[in-house]
Amino acid sequence: MDFLTLLQRLHKHSTEFVVVGGYASMLLGSDMLTQDLDICVRLSSENLNRIYDSVDDLNPRYRMGPDKKTITREMATADSIKNLYLQTDLGSLDCLGRIEGLGDYDLVLQYAREIKLDFGTIKTLDFDGLIIAKSALKRQKDILTVKKLEAIRSHLKKDS
Fold first, then answer.
1. Is residue 46 part of a domain?
2. Which H or E run includes 156?
3. Residue range 143-151: mean pLDDT, rounded
4. Which residue, among 117, 125, 119, has the nearest Cα to 21 in the 3D structure?
């Protein structure tokens, strides 16, 4: 799994996205591990094309469903796309149109913060957004992540 390279490729193609989920937690300092890269994306045809261009040479396949088909541009950019769950040579990439507890891409942007990486600046959910989203899922692993994020945020506030 090489999520940094996936992020770099998305950034290079000017994809509109916000990192959410477990990897966003890691970017904020959590030690929770994740098996996929979750991003909230604008579901416009232009942005879906950018996503496809970012992974086209990485053997992208549908991760959900029994046949795990290789995706084509037409499949990845269909008007009916709500979420795109991909398996690539660099790891799993989940492109989500909505985030539980927050809403669609434009609403998620209200909780985004910029983070500088070696290849450029990307957006990730801030502490508040991530805590809201993880709390809305109500899974045991997300409840644990919320507790860790609240502790990190509290520690950072004390230090500032």
1. yes
2. helix 140-159
3. 87
4. 125
CATH number, position 60:
3.30.460.40
The CA-atom distances, in angstroms, between 48 and each of 25, 57, 84, 128 are 25, 15, 9, 27
The mean pLDDT of 134-145, rounded to a whole number, is 87
d(Cα 33, Cα 53) in Å, to the nearest integer?
27
Query: Does a structural domain hold residue 110?
Result: yes
User: Alpha carbon of 156 to those of 27, 28, 29, 59, 98: distances in Å?
Assistant: 14, 11, 10, 40, 29
Q: Where are the alpha helices (DSSP H) in 43-139?
A: 45-55, 73-76, 105-108, 127-137
Tokens 């509109």 sit on residue: 16
Domain count, the chain: 1
For tokens 């045809």, the residue is 45
pLDDT band at 1 (very low <50, low <70, confident <90, very high): confident
* Inside any domain, residue 141: yes
pLDDT score, position 160: 66
DSSP SS3 for 32 = coil
Cα 50 from chain centre: 15
Range of the domain at 86: 3-151
Q: Is residue 157 part of a domain?
A: no
